[in-house]
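In the design runs reported in the main text, the only information available to the sequence generator was the tokenized backbone. The following block is the verbatim input for one such run; it is reproduced so that readers can re-run the procedure and compare outputs position by position.
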């Protein structure tokens, strides 16, 4: 039986990268490298990394995995509702609690400690392990190699379902920049952020390693690979695909109602998914007005054109072509 590495190791970042990230995120020892994935994660990940790796997985679990800013909150809302027979009442509970990001503690414990302490008893891993009902709906931005060992066993003996969302990396980068500014107080120019995104030293680390780690498993029966751009262009088709994957029936009428719930306007104004209760708890109500930033921000394909120079765009294109060659994956 082929099993993957059942351990993770931590490595201090080299001095130059550490200083750059510490300055950008205004915090000493802000990040650490987590291997074998070369993932760059908040140092607090040390508190929960092993617990995540050893987390028992159930066959009925549904995991929504992604690099940040790929429309994963949007896809999670779709998947959770399909999986819960369109329980719109239940969907009024915070998404961060009803289908938690397994590594959430490491991401918010420093910047949003009050919300964390009040809302999550223990850590986000404890929440997934003990405090959400089965079948569990869980999210993660972690790369393949540092997810729970049971979830990623090569022999697929525990066949939990995995849905992966991917997005054009140029739009992902723009969106990630704004998100980091809003939630993690990033102080950097967009160009500086592009540099760390391109060289794999931004939060969560190398982008292509992440995407291709899941793309290479796209044909496994327990894996569904979804692109943000396809959700934008034809949400009803993706709803049908997700429902079939989850062994659920949805009527045309139900799809119509779900599309309304999932519309950009409705998601932007929905406190169960727009992160505003967490942000307001830490920063006060006026913060969102002052910064003019939003977690559910613009929701468009091609916003990179409003942010990237021609030269930077070309660098992204070359970088993407190099990594996509021969993989069969493409982004428009
Ligand atoms: P933008 O910053 O480009 O607007 P994630 O949930 O993985 O962090 O992804 C966030 C991105 O998904 C944001 O992109 C957000 O606006 C977008 N998004 C969320 N809900 C959406 C919806 N209903 N329609 C289109 N985009 C949506």
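Verbatim output:
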């Amino acid at each position: 039986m082929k099993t993957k590495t059942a351990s993770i190791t931590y490595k201090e970042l080299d001095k130059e990268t550490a200083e750059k990230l510490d300055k950008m995120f205004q915090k000493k020892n802000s990040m650490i490298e987590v291997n074998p994935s070369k993932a760059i994660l908040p140092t607090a990940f040390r508190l929960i990394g092993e617990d995540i790796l050893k987390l028992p997985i159930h066959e009925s679990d549904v995991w929504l995995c992604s690099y940040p800013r790929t429309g994963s909150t949007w896809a999670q809302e779709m998947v959770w509702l399909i999986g819960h027979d369109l329980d719109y009442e239940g969907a009024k509970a915070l998404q961060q609690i009803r289908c938690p990001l397994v590594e959430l503690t490491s991401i918010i414990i420093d910047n949003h400690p009050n919300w964390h302490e009040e809302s999550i008893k223990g850590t986000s891993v404890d929440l997934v392990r003990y405090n959400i009902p089965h079948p569990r709906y869980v999210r993660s931005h972690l790369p393949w190699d540092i997810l729970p060992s049971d979830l990623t066993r090569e022999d697929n003996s525990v066949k939990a379902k995995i849905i992966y969302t991917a997005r054009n990396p140029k739009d992902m980068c723009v969106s990630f920049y704004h998100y980091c500014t809003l939630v993690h107080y990033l102080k950097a120019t967009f160009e500086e952020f592009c540099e760390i995104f391109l060289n794999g030293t931004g939060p969560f680390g190398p982008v292509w390693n992440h995407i291709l780690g899941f793309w290479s498993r796209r044909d496994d029966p327990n894996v569904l690979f979804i692109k943000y751009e396809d959700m934008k262009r034809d949400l009803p088709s993706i709803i049908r695909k997700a429902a079939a994957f989850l062994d659920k029936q949805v009527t045309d009428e139900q799809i119509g109602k779900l599309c309304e719930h999932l519309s950009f306007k409705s998601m932007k104004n929905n406190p169960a998914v727009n992160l505003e209760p967490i942000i307001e708890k830490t920063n006060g109500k006026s913060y969102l007005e002052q910064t003019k930033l939003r977690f559910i921000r613009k929701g468009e394909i091609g916003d990179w054109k409003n942010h990237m120079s021609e030269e930077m765009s070309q660098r992204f294109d070359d970088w993407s072509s190099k990594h996509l060659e021969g993989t069969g994956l493409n982004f428009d």
